[in-house]
Amino acid sequence: MKSFKYTARDSSGRKKEGHTQAPSSNDVINWLREQGYTPISIKESAYKAPKQKKPKGRKKRIKSAELAALCWQLNTMTEGGIAITAALHAISEDIENLALQEILKEVVEKVERGQTLSDSIGEYPKVFNQLSCAMILAGETSGNLPDALRRLAEYFDNRDKLAKKVKGAMAYPIFVFGFIILIVVFIMAFVVPRFREMFDQIGGELPAFTVAFMNFYDVLKNNVLYIIGFTVVLVISTVFTSRTKKGHYFFSRLALTLPLMGKIISQAFVATFCNTMATLLSAGVSVLEVFDIVSTMSSNDVISAAVSETRQQIVGGSSLSTSMSQTGFFPNMVVKMMQVGEESGSLPKVLERTAMYYERKVDATITAVMGLLEPLMIVVVGAVVLVVVLALYLPIFSMSPEGA
Predict the structure, then answer these.
(1) Where exactly are the structural domains of the chain?
(2) I want to staple 37 with a disulfide (CB 3.0 to 4.6 A). Which of 4, 8, 210, 335 is the partner?
């Protein structure tokens, strides 16, 4: 890019001078005319634009809730007749997330240069996925961008709520399991050694249960470095294996076969799948494009393979419901609802109702899992504490004066 110094006049005859960067002087002339100025002189210069100071603060990961808020604001402003560039500029000034703020400012610049909004946000795939680009493109093509933004905002809202529910269901058992490990480590490191010293001072024969517990403690104590090393090697090997194609597929299948959790993962995807399809089809996106987008929305290889296989069956001439049934992944109810939607010509509405049904089903499954895990975890924690208490206090309870 070259730097140019330009002189121009506006419609009222006022003179304007400045610097800009462009590939050639003709581009500067065209840019000035688009801005409503009449070019007087264009000269190449060695001027360099000053670097803008980056706002202070920490860049945070961009969440679905922030994207939903962005779409709702854009929907409200565009419905009110505000130009998309003005709306984006106004929103970017008030956004707290610095990463999203910088992206929006860059998008505004691209749109002002003549790019479409869909092409501009498409240059940031880590923030705006294929679904976002397809929805915006459909809204631009149909001339109904506010409606597309509303649907996109609803999609991000629903995805955020569902993700929080699934994460909450998985976080509880992980937290309790970690808590149990901390309890065991604390007992083994601080409590048991004191009782061992006390038993050695007292002498005498210990109960068989206490002896077994002390032997277990000695094994852990003498092999703690080996246990830590084995754990580290196991974690590292698992991470590396999961990055290979076969390893990732194995862990994807394993995740779906986990008791209860696998059911939540599959039901959550079905809800997201139906909701996404309904959103995209309502916006006028073709079925094949929908499957291209949906196939990238899950990191689980088994689920992605099922979606890709369905698309191949559709390309081969099969109906949507038949193609889905042949994969063996989608529940019969979803297949039947797809068939009803195809026959009635109201597929988006049917998909919306199916998505709502599976969202309620995810809620019910999570409630059932929590209801089962809470007492189970309490029993596990109680059992650990009971074993330790019995092992350490049995010798004290069994003590009696000599000759009594």
Answers:
(1) 2-45, 64-158, 261-365
(2) 8
